[in-house]
Amino acid sequence: NWGEVPLAPPDSIFKLTAAYKADPFPEKINLGVGAYRDDNSNPWVLPVVKTATQILLNDPNIDHEYLPITGLPQFTAAAAKLILGADSPAIAENRVVSVQTISGTGANHLGALFLSRYYHFGEEGKKVYLSDPTWVNHFAIFRNVQIEPVTYPYYDAATIGLAFEPFLETLRTAAPRSVFLLHACAHNPTGVDPTREQWGKICDVILEKNHYAFFDCAYQGFASGDLVNDAWAVREFVKRGVPLLVCQSFAKNAGLYGERVGALHIIAPTKEGADRVKSQLSVLQRSEISNPPAHGARLVALILNDPALFEQWKDDIRTMAHRIIEMRKELHKLLTEELKTPGNWDHIVNQIGMFSFTGIKTEASLALTEKAHIYLTTNGRISMAGLNKNNVRYFAENLDKVVRG
Ligand code: PLP
Ligand code: LMR
Fold first, then answer.
1. Cα–Cα distance between 181 and 335 in angstroms, integer?
2. Quick one: pLDDT at residue 159?
3. Buried b (16+ CB within 10 A) or exposed e, 164-184
4. Residues enclosing ligand 2, CB less than 6 A?
5. Which atom of ligand 1 is nearest to the CA of 262?
6. Average pLDDT along the chain
7. d(Cα 246, Cα 149) in Å, to the nearest integer?
8. Cβ–ligand 1 contact at 131 (below 6 Å)
9. Which residue, 4, 56, 343, 361, has fewest beta-carbon neighbours within 10 Å?
10. ipTM score of the complex?
């Protein structure tokens, strides 16, 4: 009767959404899951997605046939250009393998599975170096394919910034050919990204040690509001010849969370290598999902390939990124100028992307949930997108209370 199956705890992020939904308290706030909300705390269907949906509805050629195993070609080709640049020499040289995946999670999984099967790991064996902290799901994704996750120093609690030297030191001391997972931009959960100069030095050591860069890019556009700017690190590493792959998600930047639109891009040194990689990715994909879902990929393909829709999308991304930046400013102002909350809160405005790592302790996070119906992960991360003009004051006042103890 399955008595031997251990009972697992609920997912640390999605359980917050469930608890929030079940809570009848009118002022409740969900700052748990990283999902964009408008000023009324509602999900936001991007106007460009509405337009694209209408176009698809009116297209007599749309059917419900299977896509190819590696996905919709118009989607994967445009997605590669979006992250690597339309003028990327790697694309021109046919060295980029792009496979449509079940959003960013599926890209992480397929990339990890491929490495587990075919990568020549260094003498430490099948390990992946993850930033401390990272998106919690990374641990489960790699364990699932028999790659042991270990961590590298990333976040310095004392400065609420990047632990740059310890990070570099781990890159230097790891066995050659180690795999390092890097957040391409808008680091989850800390909101702390390396500067361009720091990326350059990270790249130097990765090249020296012949490491592999496993880029996870779930927030292109969310860091700065600019798609090209947010792709800088990935493009720089490709330019400098780092062996790498990129996991790409359209959940956040296109607001297509539940449609599961993503891609895995593996940059090979030669076209011949790329062809081999693609053949094996197809074999893996076939046994796992057979072929990816069509609807979301069609929407994104339309948006990426039509210049007018693409411009509209960029506007929509700016709307989201700028509203989040406004909320950072507003929260910072309330805490520092009005409430005079003890401590330094400058990191709220300095951190980048969807999340802010407030620096509050576990007990304070729990108190916010228990006393004020504010849902957040116990590590003190808040999804900035859950704050708006109507609830930011309620949040600031309660944060102030728990900080004062
Ligand atoms: N990687 C990171 C760092 C994330 O924060 C997320 C969450 O959105 C993902 C990957 C994957 O998300 P999805 O599978 O919804 O695209
Ligand atoms: C999050 O970290 O809240 C998001 O990335 C959603 C998820 O899948 O965990």
1. 34
2. 87
3. beebbebbeebeebbbbbbbb
4. 13, 33-34, 135, 137, 188
5. 16
6. 96
7. 18
8. no
9. 4
10. 0.96
